[in-house]
Design brief:
binds protoporphyrin IX containing FE, Cyt_P450_CS, 11 strands, iron, four-stranded mixed β-sheet, Cytochrome_P450_Monoox, 49% helix, iron ion binding, 524 residues
Length: 524
């Protein structure tokens, strides 16, 4: 069945596996795109006897992602196990289902509103830190990854800044290097075998990196548990959402915006995903007690019906820390670099911000984020051209007939959803390689197939952090752009993309900034 699907020529025993020899991850991305152009939106490859099928048609992507059946991750995700264990990203079956049901509501829109104060404070901190870079060329990703780690620690993990005694920088760097090792294991077939991998220097390096990564997450859980037991001994009950929101600087106006009124452009773009995030939001708070992520994990371990083990908490903390920071660090860095190239787009973003804030330095409210319509289009367009997760993979547990062509994908195959390729397909986007935020004008977005835009995946296993990410990105980016003008001397055509687990630039995210004069700008 696999051989009925078109794909590059194979050699005996190895299939197409030898293609990886001597190629860097950057070469491989290019190679895959060329094969996709040559063979179409359904392409097969053989890694020895293992069949891998690449999909880049929205109709086929919907068949896989929207199904409650094809939700198991491909065996390639097992390389994450020493790091993430059986956390939400990797787990399957009942474990995945019950943990998803528990974790997704911890990103309810009303919980997110309670994070706005922290998003603001950390964004201001970035603006302060960036002051030392004025006039120089520097890698903005370093700042974005430290900020996104700090923000996660303070929001989802509920670790106050006083308790955070070191920067997230070492953690973020270790994550980046870990992803590189895992990615090399994906395409260098000899590294797939544990006995061979363990003989290489990669294994030793992996051990060192995991001690940094797990060092931070263990510390986070320990500190949170200590607080929990200390509070419990004093008879302190974890705060309800109402208490949580009243402790933070959430404005009355923000409090009064109900979940179902808080519709943004993205909510329309992602409406067709049919995932649980909108459903959760529509179950409005009332008197219901809602807890942020780690509070809920610890509370459930002590009192919940599920009795989470310490190891399960650790797996989920490692998963959220990874998924929640590296993706948004890459996304925000791409936005700033693109705005540094397209000055007219940057001017439009700034004018929108000027209309909302004037020349004031006040923090962003939730209501303000609903007004940032152009910035939102810029973010969505950036995630189209540079999706932080450029591909995702599922394991087929039964044969699947796809929609675009007359092929049956056989049980046992790995299906790779080529997000990067779909997002740049001329079938869905006019001038697909051109940065054009108007691709997300409601009238343009509404004519496209929902699954032609899947930066957060879609369906039952979509990203639980989608709304968190978009809200955080708006606050972080708007705060930076109100203070600095961004300039990038490297045009998009010279970006060297690194086809890693998380899409980055191997040439770094080089940027220059100049302090902004807070006056409206002329646009074309
Ligand atoms: C721009 C930012 C982000 C992007 C582009 C993104 C993208 C994705 C994608 C494509 C997946 C599916 C991965 C797969 O199937 O292999 C995913 C899953 C996931 N994401 Fe995100 N993500 C972002 C931010 C976040 C944030 C901020 C969090 C948490 C705070 C988060 C937590 C998760 C989790 C836990 C999963 C696994 C969900 C499951 O399998 O049920 N992500 N994300």
């Amino acid at each position: 069945m696999g051989n009925l699907i078109p794909g590059p020529e194979t050699v005996p025993f190895f299939g197409n596996a030898l293609i990886a020899l001597g190629k860097t991850p950057d070469d491989l991305i290019q190679y895959c795109l060329v094969q996709q152009a040559k063979y179409g939106s359904v392409v097969r490859g053989w890694l020895g006897s293992k069949l891998v099928i690449f999909l880049a048609d929205a109709q086929d992507v919907e068949v896989i992602l929207n199904s409650p059946i094809h939700i198991d991750k491909a065996p390639e995700y097992n390389f994450f196990k020493p790091w993430l264990g059986e956390g939400l990203l990797i787990s399957s079956g009942n474990k995945w289902r019950s943990h998803r049901k528990m974790i997704a509501p911890t990103f309810h829109i009303n919980i997110l509103k309670s994070f706005i104060g922290v998003f603001n404070q950390n964004s201001k901190k970035v603006v302060e830190k960036l002051r030392s870079e004025v006039g120089k060329t520097f890698d903005v990703h370093d700042y974005m990854s430290t900020a996104t780690v700090d923000i996660l620690l303070e929001t989802a993990m509920g670790i106050t800044r006083k308790t955070q005694n070191e920067s997230g920088f070492d953690y973020a760097m270790a994550v980046m290097k870990m992803c590189d090792i895992i990615h090399q294991r994906h395409y260098k077939f000899w590294l797939r075998f544990d006995p061979i991998f363990k003989l290489t220097s990669f294994f030793k390096e992996q051990k060192r990196l995991l001690s940094i990564i797990h060092g931070l997450t263990n510390k986070v859980i320990k500190s949170k548990k200590e607080t929990y037991f200390e509070n419990k001994s004093k008879g302190f009950i974890p705060p309800t959402l109402d208490e949580l929101t009243s402790q933070t600087e959430i404005s009355i106006a923000d409090k009064n915006i109900l979940a179902n009124q808080a519709k943004t452009l993205s909510d329309t773009v992602f409406k067709g995903y049919r995932d649980d995030l909108d459903y959760n939001d529509e179950q409005d708070v009332g008197e219901k007690k809602r807890l942020a992520f780690l509070d809920l994990m610890i509370e459930s371990a002590q009192n919940g019906s599920q009795q989470l083990t310490d190891n399960e908490i650790k797996e989920e903390v490692d998963t959220i820390m990874f998924e929640g920071h590296d993706t948004t660090a890459a996304g925000s860095s791409f936005v700033l670099c693109l705005l540094g190239i397209y000055h007219d787009v940057q001017a439009k973003v700034y004018n929108e911000l000027y209309n909302i804030f004037g020349d004031s330095d006040r923090p962003v409210t939730f209501a303000d984020t609903l007004e940032m319509k152009y910035l939102e289009r810029v973010i969505l367009e950036t995630l189209r051209l540079y999706p932080p997760v450029p591909a995702i993979a599922r394991q087929l547990n039964r044969d699947v007939k796809i929609a675009s062509k007359d092929y049956v994908l056989p049980k046992g195959a790995t299906v790779v959803i080529g997000t990067y390729a779909i997002h740049r397909s001329p079938k869905y986007y006019k001038d697909p390689n051109t940065f054009n935020p108007d691709n997300f004008l409601p009238e343009n977005a509404s004519c496209r197939h929902y699954y032609s835009y899947v930066p957060f995946s879609a369906g039952p296993r979509s990203c639980v952090g989608r709304k968190y990410a978009l809200l955080k990105l708006k606050i972080l980016l708007s705060t930076i752009l109100r203070s600095y003008k961004c300039i990038s001397d490297i045009p998009e055509s010279k970006f060297k993309l690194k086809g890693d687990i998380i899409l980055k630039r191997s040439d770094g995210f080089q940027l220059r900034i100049v302090p902004r004069e807070r006056v409206p700008l002329k646009t074309v």
